[in-house]
Amino acid sequence: xxxxxxxxxxxxxxxxxxxxxxxxxxxxxxxxxxxxxxxxxxxxxxxxxxxxxxxxxxxxxxxxxxxxxxxxxxxxxxxxxxxxxxxxxxxxxxxxxxxxxxxxxxxxxxxxxxxxxxxxxxxxxxxxxxxxxx
Amino acid sequence: xxxxxxxxxxxxxxxxxxxxxxxxxxxxxxxxxxxxxxxxxxxxxxxxxxxxxxxxxxxxxxxxxxxxxxxxxxxxxxxxxxxxxxxxxxxxxxxxxxxxxxxxxxxxxxxxxxxxxxxxxxxxxxxxxxx
Lengths: 134, 131
Hints:
heterodimer; B: 47% helix
């Protein structure tokens, strides 16, 4: 997989979640995503950026335009150095939450993208990578 | 601080969300709306989300909360103008906004509110839409 463009953004404040949404919207539009695909990718990004802030205590997101053979896609990697997730299987269950949310963010955003990968170590942090192909 | 304006029209409150809200603005709107329902004895709330190009679980929860809180305060809530792409995404995300009345546009939303609150307006003795 080739990365043709990349950028990185901080997620330290609630306002940054808005900026991440705006950046993902711009990248998805430039890539020629359909309206539904754009909406799905921006929504997933919003959920994961909020998780990074609320549960991970802040972190970063890396945006990448990726190319694999003839297809182009947008890959986002959210990373924090927070407490990590002790039980990933549970965290990916609809309706499960340790916070004030509805427990749909992680499981829901997985359904909105084509590829979803999560790595989390207790005491070290969490990294979530999502990709949506055009 | 940034705030979403709430317009009062007779027995109803009308909110048009026209900006990409950060989470504090969402929470403030929820608080402001419930205060205004109680202060004005409003019977209905219309929330226009036609400008929103995404609704994530946080905003979805706010909409559900407002509907539930206004119900407890004897008011009905109608959400209008959801974009088709937003509806598709919301359902796939796992939020179906059960318990929230929706209408395609403001006109239909107002009609729904009037129909749902007619009895209450008569009880209050003002029965404005009977005039």
